Amino acid sequence: MASPTDIRKGRVMDYQGSPHLVLEMLHRTQGRGSGWVQATLRNLKSGSSSTVKFRSSENVEFMHTEVHKLEFSYDDPSGYFFMDLETYETIEISADIAAAHKEYLVAGNMYDILYVDDKPIDVTLPTSVEMEITVAPEGLRGDTASAATKAATTESGLVLQVPLFIKVGDRIKINTADKSYQGRV
User: Residue 87 gets which letter from DSSP?
Assistant: First the structure.
C-alpha cells in the first residue's frame, strides 16, 4: 500500500477492483487540516474517466506495469495483432481495447503496449504517424483568403483535411492528438 502523495501521471492503480490509469494529478493543502490529492483516472476496462479525491491518510495500491514496443501486423474481427520484434511472438489485443485507435494503426509501425500484470491492457499512440493517401479528390484553386484544404482518406480509413497539392499515393505525417496534417514525408 502507498500514500496518495505517490500518485503520478501515467501510473496504474487498483481503484474499486479494476485498473485505472492516472491522467492528471493535483495535490492540494488547506490552511488547516490535512491535504488531499485530486486525480483524474481512466478505467482501463471500460474506458470511462472520473475525478477522484484521496485524503492523505488513505492508502492506494499501484499495479505492476510494463511497456513493450510492438509492431502492428494486422487486424481481423477477433482483434488486433502485434509482433514483438525481439521474440517474434504475436500478441492479440482485443478489439474493444484497440478499436479506439484503429484509425492510427498502420501495419509496420511501432506502438507502445501497456501491460498490467502481464496482460496487454492499452495501446499508446505515438505523437504522429505516417500514412499513405488512398483517396483524394482533385484540388481546385480559387479565390481563397487563406490556405485551401480538401478532405482526403488514408490507408487506415482516417479522413482529414489536407492541402490542395496532396494527391493519391503521397505519404503524410498526421498528429494523433487532433487528427491534423503535419506535412509530407
Answer: T
Q: Is the pLDDT of residue 58 over 80?
A: yes
Domain range for 58: 4-62
- Identify any residues that bridge with 136 across adjacent strands, giving them in sequence order: none
Give the C-alpha separation, 91 to 82, whole Å.
Answer: 5
Residue 120 and residue 69 share a domain: yes
The residue type found at 119 is K
Q: In what order do the strands lie in the sheet with 171-175?
A: 159-163, 149-154, 128-135, 171-175, 180-184
pLDDT in tens, 105-129: 999 999 999 888 888 888 888 999 9
Going by the DSSP 8-state scheme, the letter that residue 59 receives in this structure is: -
10 Å Cβ neighbour count for 164?
Answer: 17
Residue showing cell 485507435: 101
Same-domain pairing of 140 and 174: yes
